[in-house]
Design a protein that fits this description.
The chain is α/β, with parallel strands linked by helices. Helix content is 37%, strand content 13%. The strands form three sheets. An eight-stranded mixed beta sheet has the order 1-9-8-5-4-2-3-13, with helices on both faces. It has a three-stranded antiparallel beta sheet with strand order 7-6-11, with no helix packed on it. It has a three-stranded antiparallel beta sheet with strand order 10-12-14. A hairpin with a 2-residue loop joins strand 6 and strand 7.
Length: 410
């Protein structure tokens, strides 16, 4: 457990002061070097145990307890969605969204191939066909200019993924969806506290899914949330989440008994999970400042290597505010990435590549189809390198990571 350090990172000036106090990577001596750097070090404080203990003392260990209600209210206020429902995972939230969208066998859902399997699985489980569209070369988000070419009479929804916490081009996406009468389901697993033109990610589509997995910005170990922006979907969402029953209405006194009324499953997390999540949400702004400090440090150090095309840094559109979820480098080719990864591993740094594109995976070939070319997706998947980043990471650890990368690149 960690108490909050005394360093003040509340302003850009203070962050730069802290960064300037760090010695340049090349003067590191072996005896002073950090020995290992985990891929993701979440910031865990004393509050998690306090809240979990309080939840146990309350005697309500199942779902929809006091901490669940607090977390849902926080999300509704911060994201500005109509309703937030905490789930046991982002995968569960996506599966709920697929049911709410009334996805039927043979329906098609447009999505990127460069995403986690849950984006596709949620719809495949309903019998739908994922239609994979290429990504943009700058943000690595779904290429909005290629969506309409993928629409057929079977298309039911679009599932944009906000890669690395950078918003997709949502105005264009929503315009396309409205003109073709399609639902937009935001996969915002990586997008909490990011914005698009001042609007929080997750508040724009008809539905959205968040993740609180250990690798995300705000963590509860496992966990997620379904965000509902179309009020017509709220009543059914409660039923689906409660195993297909109208149990929520019963507890509100709206019916004298509850019964099975629709499809559903057990998508509620224990209030113990919500208690940990609440402790994280209380410190969300602080966690974000720490992540941005590391992200900005990486970005400043690697800037000089972009002009000679040694690497490409993340691209953030001017109308987007990212959440420092991930820092990645696009290296020159697969061989370079393989060599750099090997060097990082040998020096105790847990870096990694990212997705194997779904369209090239066995299940992707079986259940989905491709619309157009996948040149950017295939290229990026071979060259992308993710560096360690987390709310509990120190600037000294980040400096060590940088020193190893620079040495590996010569």
């Amino acid at each position: 457990m960690l108490d909050f350090p005394s360093e003040n990172l509340t302003s850009n000036e203070n962050r730069l002061t802290a960064l300037n106090a760090i010695a340049p990577p090349q003067i590191y001596k072996p005896s002073e070097a950090v020995q290992t750097v985990p891929f993701n070090k979440a910031l865990i404080t004393h509050r998690e145990l306090e809240c979990i203990t309080e939840a146990i003392a309350n005697g309500h260990l199942t779902g929809d307890g006091e901490f669940t209600k607090r977390c849902q209210a926080w999300l509704e206020q911060q994201v500005g969605c109509q309703t937030a429902l905490i789930t046991h995972s982002c995968t569960a939230a996506l599966e709920m969204a697929a049911i709410l969208a009334d996805i039927q066998p043979g329906d098609e859902v447009i999505m990127p191939s460069y995403t986690f399997v849950s984006t596709a699985n949620a719809f495949v489980l309903r019998g739908a066909v994922p239609v994979f569209v290429d990504i943009r070369p700058d943000t690595l988000n779904l290429d909005e200019t290629k969506i309409e070419a993928a629409i057929t009479s079977k298309t039911k929804a679009i599932a944009p993924v906000h890669y690395a916490g950078v918003s997709c081009e949502m105005d264009t996406l929503m315009d396309i969806a409205n003109r073709h009468n399609l639902l937009v389901i935001e996969d915002a697993a990586q997008g909490i506290m990011s914005t698009y033109k001042g609007r929080p990610v997750g508040s724009i589509g008809h539905l959205a899914a968040l993740s609180f997995h250990q690798t995300k910005n705000i963590v509860s170990g496992e966990g997620g949330a379904l965000l509902i922006n179309d009020p017509k979907l709220l009543e059914r969402a409660e039923i689906i989440r409660e195993k297909g029953t109208n149990r929520s209405k019963f507890f509100r006194g709206e019916v004298d008994k509850y019964t099975w009324v629709d499809l559903g499953s057990s998508y509620l997390p224990s209030d113990l999970i919500a208690a940990m999540l609440w402790a994280q949400l209380e410190k969300a702004e602080y966690i974000q400042r720490r992540r941005h400090s590391i992200w900005q440090y990486y970005d400043e150090v690697f800037a000089d290597l972009e002009a000679p095309q040694i690497l490409q840094r993340p691209s953030i559109p001017g109308d987007c505010q990212h959440n420092a979820h991930m820092y990645y480098l696009l290296l020159q080719n697969l061989a370079t990435r393989t060599a750099v990864l090997a060097e990082l591993k040998s020096k105790g740094v847990q870096a990694t590549f990212h997705y194997v594109p779904l369209h090239s995976a066995p299940a992707g070939k079986k259940y989905g189809r491709v619309s157009g070319g996948m040149e950017v997706t295939d290229d990026v998947s071979d060259r992308l390198l993710r560096l360690p980043l987390g709310g509990g990471m120190t600037l000294k650890e980040a400096e060590y990571v940088v020193s190893v990368v620079l040495n590996a690149l010569g």
